[in-house]
Amino acid sequence: MKKYSRSDENVAMKLHYDVLRDDFSRAGEASSKIKNMLRQLAIDANILRRIAIATYEAEINLVIHSYGGSIDVYIKSDCIEIYVEDSGPGIENVELAMTKGFSTATNIAREMGFGAGMGLPNMEKVSDEFIIESERDKGTNIKMVVNY
Ligand SMILES: Nc1ncnc2c1ncn2[C@@H]1O[C@H](COP(=O)(O)OP(=O)(O)O)[C@@H](O)[C@H]1O
Ligand SMILES: [Mg+2]
Q: Which residues contact 108 (CB under 8 A, 6 or more apart)?
């Protein structure tokens, strides 16, 4: 597995958040903390908006689709890297999952307003670099890069 590796080169700051499965009451908390932290660093509003979208959608997916996972944000001198990794269940067909409107969200998740099937397409759209890899039973790994 692992189509990408993490590089510590030029990292000014690292943020790490664990996200639990089905934790609807805290869904959005990690991405909100990331946004507030970056705002304090006076990061450009448009860059901030893109990172907020990418981390929010990633966090919701961890809550409603995964067994739980983590979000790591590497703040570098020329870009921000976001790593989203979970321990399962993995995505059967990544190409299909990337399709606008495709969703396997449960009725419970839909009742909470999730499951529009736009998370992955929007994560890719706001990223300068987007890598996703997933394996059934092993989990899903995503790397997103937003350049300054
Ligand atoms: N971390 C994940 N683990 C397992 N499946 C996932 C994960 N992220 C996304 N998926 C699958 O990809 C589909 C599309 O994701 P997304 O575009 O975010 O739409 P939505 O979350 O609204 O269903 C999901 O419905 C789900 O089947
Ligand atoms: Mg989603």
A: none
CA 12 – ligand 1 centroid, Å: 31
- Ligand 1 — pocket residues by CB below 6 A? 57, 61-62, 65-66, 86, 89, 91, 97, 102-105, 114-121, 140
Domain spans of the chain, in order of start:
11-147
Q: Which atom of ligand 1 is nearest to the CA of 86?
A: 1
CATH architecture of the domain with range 11-147: 2-Layer Sandwich (3.30)
Peptide bond into 89 cis (omega under 30): yes
pLDDT digits (tens, 9 = 90+) for 54-96: 999 999 999 999 999 999 999 999 999 999 999 999 999 999 9
pTM comes to 0.97
